[in-house]
Structures are given as structure tokens and as C-alpha cells.
Amino acid sequence: MMLGLNPAFAGALAGVVLGLLSMAIVQNVAARMEEDAKSDRQRATARLLRNIAWLDVLIFAVAGYFIGPMILS
Fold it and tell me: Cβ distance 23 to 57 under 8 Å?
């Protein structure tokens, strides 16, 4: 029996890939900000960006789950 890839799962998978790409970019920006940080507030902003980067993966996956069937059907 061959398992098909349903549109919702394909969208979620594409969302995870885009979320991981976005996460890598935001993590890179946060690392550069942390290197150049001169105050505690700038370091806190870099930490916040790192946390938001993890949320990107989740948000993109959920969005892909709902958008995937709209595009693929």
C-alpha cells in the first residue's frame, strides 16, 4: 500500500522548511547583535530574537498546514 502525501501535511512540511530557514537567518542576526551589544538592553533584544526564531518554525508549520490545502487542491 502506497501512502500519499495529503495537502495539509505537504503544506506543514513546506512550512517547517521555511520556518527553519527563517530561524537560521534570525539566529544569525541575533548572534551578530550579541557580538556588538554594548548594553544589557541590546543583549536582551538578541535573546528575544533567539526565542522568536523558535516560534517561527511553529508558526510557519501551522500556517502551511492551513494554506497547503488551499494551494494544492
Answer: yes
Phi, psi (5° rounding) for residue 37?
-65, 130
| Closest of 70, 65, 67, 66 to residue 16, by C-alpha | 65
- Residues of the chain by 3-state class (helix, strand, coil), percent to 5: 85, 0, 15
Q: What is the mean pLDDT of the chain?
A: 91
Q: Are 14 and 70 in contact (CB under 8 A)?
A: no
Q: pTM for this structure? A: 0.82
The closest alpha carbon to 47, from 59, 58, 33, 57, belongs to 33
